[in-house]
Each structure stands twice: as structure tokens, then as C-alpha cells.
């Protein structure tokens, strides 16, 4: 069964360092997302990406964050200068389409996550 | 501000019983409603989706939606210890991103 894959599973970085989290969405999916979950808290939306551009972003997704689809398969999240409060699980997700025409197309499938620890 | 509210639990049920999980949402234009299961330290796993009022059954799971009351629920019949997890309610409207509730922790006691 197709799945979203993320690497690495765990990343430890020093405060102020740059990190890149990688994702391979499901191959026929067109919408890609990054969510994060701070330990013990809810899953929060960061950014959505469609047709090679950001379609929506949250207040969390400030200038420290960027996303890229460098080739036909990978989707990356870069955090330029990590802060202690960036420590969280970061989940990549993909959906076949948006759900505006057919709600079922909005079903989003999540990767296994990258646990980012900033020390 | 779009909100999705869930009772955090824990909800404890004996093995074989029905577990009932509830969720309310604030955005009236919401169209799509999802239940995800999340085991500790793992990612959300989609288990049910519902788009129109009424009930939708899939195996031991039944999702119920009432848009007038802005209420969605998940019933798990014949609960098993392996169902012990946090259940996340998520909602969106068309192309908007998913808004998640905090989740309800379910504990099925053998």
C-alpha cells in the first residue's frame, strides 16, 4: 500500500543550526502538507503546498521556515535557525487533491514523522 | 478561529464494550470530517471519514455526523485492548487544511 515516508526519524540539533526534514509523498498525490505536534499538544498545521507553490500557511510558519519540492518526489521542510521551542514531531502528509469538488479527495495520509530535538 | 473540541479523557471501557468518542467543531462551512487514531509516539492514522449527515459504518467503527449540531462522533464496537490509543477528530472545508482536536485518550481494559 502506498505510504508517505519521512527521513530522518529522529534529528537532534543545536539551537541556531539549520535542519532539513525530508518527505516523499504518495506518488499520485498533488497536495502536500507539514504539520507539527509538540509533546502532549494537538497536531498543528504549518503549511500546504500545491502546484509547486505554497497554497496556505499558518502563523507558526514564519520566515524561519521554508518548503521546497526539489525534484518530482521529495518535499522538504527547512528550519533556518532552530529554537528550543521548535522541538516537536513534524509530520508530512499528502492528499490526492483538495476537497473542494470531491470531499473524499481531501483525505490526508501522514508519514511516520520526524522527531526534532533542539538542544 | 476554527476550533475542534474533544474531551481529553481518558475514556476507559472494558474489552468487548462500545466506546463512544465525541467531537464538536466551530466552523459551520466545514465539509469533511475525519477520525485519526494515534498510538503513543506514532503518527496519526486515518480510520474513518464522513461527509454527509447520518451514520457511516466500516467494520467495528461507526462515524456519525450532525451538521446542524456541529457534532461528529465515533463508535467503536467490541472494543479491543489494541484499540487503546488517542483518537483525533479533524475537520476541514474544501481546500482548507485540517484542524485537529486535542484528541481523546481511549483505554480498553482487558
Protein architecture, described:
- The complex is a heterodimer of chains A (119) and B (110).
- Helices cover 0% and strands 48% of the residues of chain A.
- In chain A, strand 5 (44-50) and strand 6 form a beta hairpin.
- In chain A, strands 2, 4, 5, 6, 9, 10 and 11 form a seven-stranded mixed sheet that branches. A four-stranded antiparallel sheet of chain A has the order 1-3-8-7, with no helix packed on it.
- The model of chain A has no long low-confidence stretch (mean pLDDT 92).
- Chain A has strands at 5-7, 10-13, 19-24, 31-37, 44-50, 53-57, 65-68, 75-79, 88-95, 108-110, 114-118.
- By secondary structure, chain A is an all-beta fold.
- Chain A contains no helices and eleven strands.
- Chain B is globular and about 40 Å long.
- In chain B, the strands form two sheets. In chain B, strands 2, 4, 5, 9, 10 and 11 form a six-stranded mixed sheet that branches. Chain B has a five-stranded antiparallel sheet with strand order 1-3-8-7-6, with no helix packed on it.
- The mean pLDDT of chain B is 94.
- In chain B, a hairpin with a 2-residue loop joins strand 6 and strand 7.
- With 110 residues, chain B is mainly beta.
- The chains are: A mainly beta (119), B mainly beta (110).
- Chain A binds chain B through residues 33, 35, 41-45, 48, 55-56, 58, 89, 91, 98-100, 103-104, 106-113, and chain B through 31-32, 34, 36, 42-46, 49, 51, 88, 90, 92, 94-103.
List the SSEs and their pairings:
The complex is a heterodimer of chains A (119) and B (110).
Chain A (H helix, E strand, L loop, with lengths): L4 E3 L2 E4 L5 E6 L6 E7 L6 E7 L2 E5 L7 E4 L6 E5 L8 E8 L12 E3 L3 E5 L1
Parallel strand pairs in A: 2-11
Antiparallel strand pairs in A: 1-3, 3-8, 4-5, 4-9, 5-6, 7-8, 9-10, 9-11
Chain B lengths: L3 E2 L5 E4 L4 E7 L6 E7 L6 E6 L3 E5 L2 E6 L4 E6 L8 E8 L6 E2 L3 E6 L1
Amino acid at each position: 500500500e502506498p505510504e508517505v515516508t519521512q527521513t530522518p526519524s529522529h534529528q537532534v540539533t543545536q539551537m541556531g543550526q539549520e535542519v532539513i526534514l525530508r518527505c516523499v509523498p504518495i506518488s499520485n498525490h498533488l497536495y502536500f502538507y507539514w504539520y507539527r505536534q509538540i509533546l502532549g499538544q494537538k497536531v498543528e498545521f504549518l503549511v500546504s503546498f500545491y502546484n509547486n507553490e505554497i497554497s496556505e500557511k499558518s502563523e507558526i510558519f514564519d520566515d524561519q521556515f521554508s518548503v521546497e519540492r526539489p525534484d518530482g518526489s521529495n518535499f522538504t521542510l527547512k528550519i533556518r535557525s532552530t529554537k528550543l521551542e521548535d522541538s516537536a514531531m513534524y509530520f508530512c502528509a499528502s492528499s490526492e487533491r483538495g476537497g473542494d469538488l470531491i470531499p473524499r479527495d481531501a483525505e490526508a495520509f501522514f508519514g511516520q514523522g520526524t522527531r526534532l530535538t533542539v538542544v | 478561529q476554527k476550533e475542534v473540541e474533544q474531551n481529553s479523557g481518558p475514556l476507559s471501557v472494558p474489552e468487548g464494550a462500545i466506546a463512544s468518542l465525541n467531537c464538536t467543531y466551530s466552523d459551520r462551512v466545514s465539509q469533511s470530517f475525519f477520525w485519526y487514531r494515534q498510538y503513543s509516539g506514532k503518527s496519526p492514522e486515518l480510520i474513518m471519514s464522513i461527509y454527509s449527515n447520518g451514520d457511516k459504518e466500516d467494520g467495528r467503527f461507526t462515524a456519525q455526523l450532525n451538521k446542524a449540531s456541529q457534532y461528529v462522533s465515533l463508535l467503536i464496537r467490541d472494543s479491543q485492548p489494541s484499540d487503546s490509543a488517542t483518537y483525533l477528530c479533524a475537520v476541514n472545508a474544501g481546500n482548507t487544511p485540517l484542524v485537529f482536536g486535542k484528541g481523546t485518550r481511549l483505554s480498553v481494559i482487558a
